[in-house]
Write a structure and sequence with these properties.
The protein is of the alpha+beta class. It has seven helices and 16 strands. Bound molecules: zinc ion. Zinc ion binds next to helix 4 and helix 6. The site of zinc ion has 7 residues, from helix 4 and helix 6.
């Protein structure tokens, strides 16, 4: 069990947006899909394996650690690689976990098998930032963590989810990220994943604004936070504030039924409504929602930085839950469901899992993995 040495490590560090800006200024080949920061969990639910893997090493997975890392962190990163490789292999990427990991998350450039680098940064925010270098010759990604970050396997797999976004990027567009943003693959529809009760799970929430825009992409139903393996960061005291959707203009025909007055609780490290210099720490982070960045998206236009960040962090957490088969038919908010969960009769967890299975299989075909 790792004892968090700095309970405050995440408190003032959840600032993925400014981290984004930093990366954008230095990235030699900036992509529209941006490197993103993952807040440091202040609660680290480490699960020590009952069997310590002795046969496999980080080198087997092409993982290189630079800088200072505790042995426990090295063990956690190896566990993350093993878990990820096994998930990819069992779904058909390659016959072994090591081969699947390397094929999907690293690839070969110029006849050379690439690697993934983990490095330390002493200054700046106490976060990990995954810099994707899809065209790099030696590394497919550089996962940079502040020296105060105590790495665990769940944060590591979340970062591998960001690597997958990079690995599925061609011409600046990630196929994986596109799928997350448009879960039903039909741009002419409402672009949402539904559960067995036809309730919203992920995608465009579907509140039509006066302008006609439907901009409120959500990683889960903001009222229930459904289908994840554990609760998301949630400040149970703070809300973005209620908002009143404007009625349609005169002569616009039958109004679309819309919620009239809603209060959306603050979720994730993204701050109020728009990127803020220092978002407030909200609640405790949980294993399977590492960065539940959520904006009240009626303020965030499609394609804006906030929207891209929200989708990107959901992509990383979806990969995390898929890797651990941890999607759960639970509701994490509303009716006192926070933070132990309530039964979700609509089976949102199964909906997420089945959706991810389908997308991953299609990505394997698309990229020849
Ligand atoms: Zn992240």
């Amino acid at each position: 069990m790792i004892t968090p040495t700095a309970n405050t490590s995440g408190v003032n560090s959840r600032n993925p947006l400014s981290a984004l800006v930093q990366i954008v200024t230095v990235a030699p080949q900036p992509l529209p899909i941006l490197p993103t920061a993952t807040p440091t969990p202040t609660v680290i639910p480490t699960q020590i394996p009952t069997q310590t893997p002795v046969a496999l090493t980080l080198a087997d997975y092409g993982v290189v650690l630079e800088g200072t890392w505790l042995q426990t962190e090295r063990d956690e990163i190896l566990l993350a690689a093993i878990q990820t490789g096994n998930a990819l292999s069992s779904h058909g990427a390659a016959s072994t976990g090591t081969a699947a990991f390397r094929e999907v998350l690293q690839g070969v450039v110029g006849g050379q098998q690439r690697k993934i680098k983990f490095s330390r940064i002493a200054n700046g925010l106490r976060v990990c930032i995954t810099a994707k270098t899809p065209d790099g010759a030696e590394f497919s990604a550089n996962i940079q963590c502040h020296s105060d970050v105590i790495m665990n396997q769940y944060t590591t797999v979340h970062e591998f989810g960001h690597v997958l976004v990079g690995r599925t990027t061609i011409g600046g567009i990630s196929s994986y990220l596109t799928r997350i943003g448009d879960p039903d693959g039909n741009t002419s529809s409402l672009n949402r994943l539904l559960n067995s009760s036809s309730d919203f799970v992920m995608g465009v929430r579907g509140y039509t604004l006066l302008s006609g825009a439907v901009t409120d992409w959500q990683r889960s139903d903001p009222d229930t936070d459904n289908g994840w393996g554990s609760a998301g960061l949630w400040d149970t005291q703070s809300y973005y504030g209620s908002y009143q959707l404007q009625p349609p203009p005169v002569g616009a025909g039958t109004p679309t039924p819309i919620p009239q007055q809603r209060s959306i609780p603050k979720l994730g490290p993204c701050g109020d409504g728009a990127p803020t210099p220092q978002p407030t720490a909200m609640g405790s982070p949980f294993t399977f929602q590492q960065n539940p960045c959520t904006f009240p998206s009626w303020l965030i236009a499609p394609g804006s930085l906030g929207n891209v960040l929200e989708v990107e962090e959901a992509a990383a957490d979806m990969f995390l839950n898929w890797t651990y088969s941890s999607f759960n038919d639970q509701l994490w908010r509303g009716n006192n469901c926070y933070s132990n969960g309530c039964n979700d009769s609509g089976l949102s967890g199964q909906a997420r899992n089945q959706w991810m299975d389908t997308q991953m299989s299609q990505l394997f075909i698309e990229f020849g993995w």
